[in-house]
Amino acid sequence: MSTTTHHRPSPPAPWRSTFESHISLMPSPEFIFATVAPSSSSNPPYTKPTTPYVPRLRYCIYRGMWSQLPENKHNNAPKNPRVYDSDMPTFTTDVRMQKVGELFASSAGHAAKDEQVQGSGGGGPCEAVFWVKEKGTQWRIKGTAFVVAPDIEVRKEKETSGVRTVKSEIGGRMRVVEGGEDKEGEWSWGRELTAHFGNCSPGMRGSWKNPPPGTPVKGEPDKEHQLGQKVEDLEDPIARSNFRVVVIKPDEVEQTDISDPATARRWKYTLVTDAQDGRGEWTKEELWP
Prior knowledge:
Distance between the termini: 46 Å
Order of helices and strands: HEEEEHEEHEHHHEEE
Mean pLDDT: 92
Largest sheet: 8 strands, antiparallel
Number of strands: 10
Number of helices: 6
Strand content: 25-35%
Structural class: alpha+beta
Shape: globular
Low-confidence stretches: none
């Protein structure tokens, strides 16, 4: 059952079709995902109190727009009906990775304890940068990012503040597609999460049963946490407990085309939200690169 919170959604983003056509040309849709982490003495050289946050970057794989899961003939997971569309890029990650904690710690809630980042939530600032060599174009997406966890599908009275935040912030940017009005009650957040898990290869699913990322190698890991596992079971308890989908909610998108130095240009798209009805409109500005 869908408990998506709807505001008046923004119209389709004007950059969306060009962005997706460019991404389709990449052999592997890799991008750099940037977050910020609280500064401390364990983060040299950023140890001065005047630097409260430090940058953190890593490569991720683009997994399509939220609510528009790419088709995969090998994915046997139950799928949601085509009810919603959105302009929010997604990627998958492991809850044990630092990026998840950073999205919580830098959010309005400032969650810092490990037990506070196990469920859905987050909302910290982020940037995603794609270099599409085939088009000589860089795409930079700025906004906030939210984490979808297994607790996303619970009875409404048991929803955490994190679940409510995700459904409000992400749900507010989801548009009902033509013909989907009568199927909204059939759409499920939990089913969408499972479908993302199913869209990953058995080897990728197995990575969520790896030894804890970033921890010292001391002896052999236990038999449940080994490298190189392949997971066929879509409900594998260990893999699913670590699996997360991250949804990027863009507020600004830049397209920089340097394919021809003589005509190079940058276009900046900014989402301007109406304070009264919450509806957003994308503006477009042409800039020098």
